[in-house]
Amino acid sequence: MSIAPLTTDRPATSAAAEVTQRPVDRSAHPAGRDHPSTGPRPTGSMSVAALRAIAAGLARVQQPVPPEPGADGPRSVRLLSTVFYDVWLITWPDGTGLEPHDHGDTCSVMYVVDGEVHEDLAGSTAGSTGRTLRRSDSTTGGPFEVHGLRNGSGAEVTTLHVYSPPLMDVTFHGHDGGGDPVPLRSTPVVARPAVATSPETAPPRAPHLTLVDR
Prior knowledge:
By secondary structure, this protein is mainly beta. It has a single domain (25-34, 43-197), classed as Jelly Rolls. The protein contains 1 helix and 13 strands, in the order E-H-E-E-E-E-E-E-E-E-E-E-E-E. The strands form 3 sheets. Strands 7-6-9-4-11-12 form a 6-stranded antiparallel β-sheet, with no helix packed on it. It has a 5-stranded antiparallel β-sheet with strand order 2-3-10-5-8, covered by helices on one side. Strands 1-13 form a two-stranded antiparallel sheet.
């Protein structure tokens, strides 16, 4: 498996790999609660360039997701939902993260709105290799590519995620004896209404979006 390179030339650091992560609390993450399937997955996906443009544009006007009473794990809100893509905003408190996982047959772009998060790459044992993503960095993932995320920065980090087709399930992975990812379980994504978090008006012209048949 391969993961697209960052959109920055800064070298990755390993500082976050030394952080001891708190027990996983996904109660407010899209994959935190089971729910029935909402229907068949769309058959078309958008180009990575279009997903990057959507992520970069929306990230400029986002704020951290407000805390939820009684929850200290990742907090998420679904910003937009269309037939071909949806957008999630996630705030990760210090010490939280998500174990190795894939997003099914979606293509994705993750954009760091603010803060610093460590990404563990597919095929690596936890904490051994990876890269640190900082504000305005973005990374892409193809169908069934595996990665993990950890925030050990000492502060909250907020990330924006664009999925095409829309995200419907997350599969979590362990490791075999050779360090390769092994799927353990799949969790349907929580179905939530899309909620805009910015009062900004729509731009006068929408970006050019290229659709790619699968």
